Input
Amino acid sequence: MSCRSATHAGSWYSSNRTKLDSELSNWLSSVNPSPEEGFSPPIKGCKAIIAPHAGYSYSGPPAAWAYKSVDPDGIKRVFILGPSHHVYMDGCALSTQTEYSTPIGNLPLDISTISQLRATGWFTDMSIETDEDEHSIEMHLPYIRKVFEGYNVSIVPILVGAIFKEKEVAFGQLLAPYLASEDTLCVVSSDFCHWGTRFQYTHYYESAAQVHSETHPVYRLSRLQTPPPSLSNFPIYASIEALDQEALRILTLPGASGSAAEAHENFAAYLRRTKNTICGRHPIGVLFGALGQLETSREEGEHSGKAAVVKWVKYAQSSKCFDISDSSVSYASAYVLF
Output
């Protein structure tokens, strides 16, 4: 038996079992959507969620909205797709461990599924150093353990590298049959806009009317330039939200994009245009690659599932930015049916 340590416990989230369990319970119980939001969790048939991975003081409350969507009944296997923050990879990697530790109880890995994926030749293996350095997967483990408390569930962690859209599609096609299984849930790990000079990203919309403009030049705020007068009427934090909400609209199904494949294409175009610093863009791309494959299979009569639904249920920012000296990270949570 080999076990990955909970290396970020005690810093990114509490290492105290009682305190962490209480925090998770409180965040989940605090999810109280209004009737007009059309969100009544848990969502029967929830097949995937998208949720953030920052320190729990920031991402814990918004992530709860995604995890509240999960109906644990019948789920035996949880895929976790997380972006690689520390190691460059032109592909995806699997864990070599048999168990992942959390302060509220360990999670066994699905060794059989991981062996099948490894046998395809498409995946590399993470070293234990890479595995334990990465936070994008670990930050979801306590929530998974909590939501599946009392359930026999195993996990399939996959670290997703900086892959082009074509590879996102290819990995999505490979994973689609696994994700379509009735006993499987997929967790996609992503924060949204990382704004500020420390992130080297200071995109600014001068008005809400700019949001959908593909011809208007991108405005980059700088310490060396006089701030635009529009900041008094359209502050930076509002521009950041407009930027993120543009991505959420593209990724909503059913929605303006039409199909999952079209949403994937539109999302890739949006990223090229805005350069938005969505760290989990490639895991999201792999999920939409899988949804596109399942759409094709359903149209050809090979898959009996329903058309994909992606509904965003929570958006938050770590802080409000008013000037170039500020910084923030955005968080968004969604559930997925297919």
Observations:
- The first strand starts at residue 3 and ends at 4.
